[in-house]
């Protein structure tokens, strides 16, 4: 069968977006891995599926699959692309709408300049919510990896994150320490590993080694987790500009039970049609 799709990106974190409202398809995890392959497939970090809502108060169901074929709870850059996609495809006439994800509901709003604001929900820090194996909810945790003690904070944005503070993000051991911490048994569902350099209380630089993908050019939920952990530790103040390898996001968080709000771009790259084997 032939499947219509749109290739999009949010700051270089790239997506295959599939409308499953006007067409029907089921993608197996081996098919997702093949499509995600940058040499033998289309190439993407995540597959985003646009589906009808299952709950009456929601506009759409937003499903996310990593390049390794695993379904995940949330994707921030994907949420902005999702919002642009449903408007461009005329699947809604609204500029502001609610979507259900595996990680909970999100509110999306497309501004007149095309940038998208996403209410990403309330960050959670309790170890059980990540999930992370620890006795207590603390702002910093430690693990021994290869004979050195690694210090980090943890947060859930629906999906699991660990955030390490580094002096120079360009020199950070993202490709070496990222996978080791990500697969540590203390993270039973693995985690996305962020390396954060603090530039000022209102600006950070960030690289993220993502679960199910590896290092990406940007991670929206990783940006939310880094800012939330930094504000909770008292080293950052809202609003915070987050410079990722693919560009910049703005994050606002008033703390406590309030939602974290992310603003950034969403770009269409091309339309295509692919045969599913
Ligand atoms: N790139 C995303 C996060 C995608 C999911 C993540 N890899 C996970 O496994 O939780 C973002 O922009 O948030």
TrEMBL record:
- The broad enzyme category this protein falls into is isomerase
Q: What Pfam families has UniProt attached to this entry?
A: DAP_epimerase
Q: Could you tell me which InterPro entries the record lists for this protein?
A: DAP_epimerase_AS (IPR018510), DAP_epimerase_DapF (IPR001653)
Which reactions is this enzyme annotated as catalysing? (2S,6S)-2,6-diaminopimelate = meso-2,6-diaminopimelate
Name any one GO molecular function: diaminopimelate epimerase activity
- Pathway assigned in UniProt: Amino-acid biosynthesis; L-lysine biosynthesis via DAP pathway; DL-2,6-diaminopimelate from LL-2,6-diaminopimelate: step 1/1
Q: How does it assemble?
A: Homodimer.
Purpose: Catalyzes the stereoinversion of LL-2,6-diaminopimelate (L,L-DAP) to meso-diaminopimelate (meso-DAP), a precursor of L-lysine and an essential component of the bacterial peptidoglycan.
Q: Which family is annotated?
A: Belongs to the diaminopimelate epimerase family.
Question: What is the official name of this protein in its record?
Answer: Diaminopimelate epimerase
Origin organism is Salinicola lusitanus
């Amino acid at each position: 069968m032939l499947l219509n799709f749109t290739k999009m990106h949010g700051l270089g974190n790239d997506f295959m977006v599939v409308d499953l409202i006007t067409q029907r398809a089921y993608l197996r995890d081996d098919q997702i891995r093949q499509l995600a392959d940058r040499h033998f497939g289309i190439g993407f970090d995540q597959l985003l599926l646009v589906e009808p809502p299952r709950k009456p108060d929601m506009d759409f169901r937003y499903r996310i699959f990593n390049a390794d074929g695993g379904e995940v709870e949330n994707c921030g850059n994907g949420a902005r692309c999702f919002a642009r996609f449903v408007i461009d495809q005329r699947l809604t006439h609204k500029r502001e709408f609610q979507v259900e994800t595996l990680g909970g509901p999100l509110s999306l709003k497309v501004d007149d300049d095309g940038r998208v604001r996403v209410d990403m929900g309330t960050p959670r820090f309790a170890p059980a919510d990540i999930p992370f194996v620890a006795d207590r909810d603390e702002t910093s945790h430690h693990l021994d990896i290869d004979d050195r003690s690694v210090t980090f904070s943890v947060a859930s944005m629906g999906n699991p994150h660990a955030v390490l503070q580094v002096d120079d993000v360009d020199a950070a051991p993202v490709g070496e320490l990222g996978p080791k911490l990500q697969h540590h048994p203390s993270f039973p569902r693995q985690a996305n590993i962020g390396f954060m350099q603090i530039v000022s209380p209102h600006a950070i630089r960030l690289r993220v080694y993502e679960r199910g993908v590896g290092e990406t050019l940007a991670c929206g939920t990783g940006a939310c987790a880094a800012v939330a952990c930094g504000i909770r530790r008292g080293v950052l103040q809202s609003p915070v500009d987050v410079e990722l390898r693919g560009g910049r996001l703005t994050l606002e968080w008033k703390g406590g039970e309030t939602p974290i709000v992310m603003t950034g771009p969403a770009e269409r790259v091309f339309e295509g049609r692919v045969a599913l084997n």
